[in-house]
Amino acid sequence: MDDVGMEHGSLLPELRGFPVKEIRFRRHMEKLRNGQQRDLILCKLERNRECLMIQTFKELNAQFGNQTRRVQTPLTFNRVKVTFKDEPGEGSGVARSFYTSIAEALLASAKLPNLETTHIGMNNKYGTPFSSILRNRGVSNRDPPSLQRRTAGNKIFWRTSRERKLLNYDARPYLPASNHSDGTTEPNDHLSVHLQQLGERLFPKIYSINATNASKITGMLLEIPTPQLLSILSSEDTLRQKVNEALDIITYKQKTEANNVSTQTQKKMIPVVLLEQCQIEDNEPLFYSPGKRGFYTPRQGYGSFERINAFRNIGRLIGLCLQQNELLPLFLQRHVLKFILGRKIKFYDLAFFDPTIYESFRQLILNAQLEDGDATILRMELFFVIDLMKEEGGGSVELLPGGREIQVTSSNLFEYLKRYTEYRLIKSQEKALEALRDGVFDVLPDSCMNSLTAEDLRLLLNGVGDINVSTLISYTTFNDESSEGSDKLLKFKRWFWSIVEKMGTSERQDLVYFWTGSPALPASEEGFQPLPSVTISPADDSHLPTANTCISRLYIPLYSSKTILRSKLLMAIKSKNFGFV
């Protein structure tokens, strides 16, 4: 039965309960870790949000920068070792504290720091920094960069005197031969025969990435130097980044033209001048919470190179936590987890993303089934167009070509709902979602999560944030170093659990963070390494409790009263007076 369940496409693994899938997954991760001798070392990190993000991304880029997922195997580590500046220790408790701190930094609603420095020294396969694109667009595209030749052994490499030639929005679109085979004129006459041949190779690849703008983007890419173009053709990652860069330029230009149409008296501005003067910063927060509070979805913004790379690094952090059997308190929306797992995102996933709009659509479906359903829907005057939130890019987008003129009826209602869901949950943030998923599989093998559902992945990654005291009691053992009688120790334990039971949710999370380095409990006993414990030290009403998060152990003096125990414990968890030995 087990062998049958391991066959590709088998449904049997999905029918197992979470405990079975968890054990199999954790054993797989343990095997991966034990097969490696290399450690990932993050040294002298700072607690400051901006510094922590920059240092983390820079180190991850240095480690994974040359990874090409379609060629190389995932980059696996035996351990992740973390040290903080001016703080002692480098054990597993420090690593857990790091995962908690970086998650808080990533989910913060503050602006992003400048992330351009995170790419220094890495082999940049993402493109060019967004600010560099904006600064350099003022350079004339008619001044092609000179090519320089350098050799290494028997190999010849080409490079440009500038970093690269900038894409030209005004480039003539490329039309494939199949689109004009019966015409009297050749629309690609402006291209050499060689470039026309390259266009035939390039167009279908771009069409598979972005069908709507394939001709325009192909024309833009055909203007860059041939050696660079051949390099782009040979790398799917590089091609995708170039397509995204071209889309940024097209989108910006189209928005600019739309804004200028309403001002007939103004002189039409030259695109180069506009781009020289604009001060676009792609530094909005990386995540936003559209539905249930506390659950987040990526916010790709302008899709700049630094921002997309940030999402890739976040994916790598997710992969590392799963591989290392650690929790990451980065609570992602259900459809984001499904996207990472490669599972189909459906209409009912909208209920988790935007419960209000989902309920409105559900009522719409019910109304469509009534006798006067057609008239009811027509009165609502819905069209195949979607108004996006600021976090989704703003403005309105047609869900079909000419969608502003296509009214929703009972016959096309389900097509409308399908396209609406697909756009809001996937297409509006697609580049960020893809980078997130790619980052996860920079670390993990492609097939290791095939049997997992979104709920399974959430439990493995986030654990259980709602701390159940009974569960915590079942996990915890007590060690006595006080040399007091058993009756006094039993009373002390009862005091302790009584205080924990009366804590609010946030206080319990603070306690568990103080105790283990993570604000949540693993989904099961399998997730603990090791199980939590409490050491009762000799009587002392003057000192606070301490903790060794590396071994999930609390050290509590045998206080003389329950009141003192409660006061000292709350004071300790708020001051985070723990140690990483």
From TrEMBL:
SUPFAM superfamilies: Hect, E3 ligase catalytic domain (SSF56204), PABC (PABP) domain (SSF63570)
GO biological process terms, semicolon-separated: positive regulation of canonical Wnt signaling pathway; protein polyubiquitination
InterPro entries per UniProt: HECT_dom (IPR000569), Hect_E3_ubiquitin_ligase (IPR035983), PABP-dom (IPR036053), PABP_HYD_C (IPR002004)
GO cellular component: cytoplasm; nucleus
PABC domain mapped to chain residues: 178-255
Domain HECT: 298-581
Keyword Nucleotide-binding applies: no
Active site: C550 (glycyl thioester intermediate)
Alphabetically ordered keywords of this record: Ubl conjugation pathway
Entry annotated with the keyword Cell inner membrane: no
Molecular function (Gene Ontology), one example: ubiquitin-ubiquitin ligase activity
Protein name according to UniProt: E3 ubiquitin-protein ligase hyd
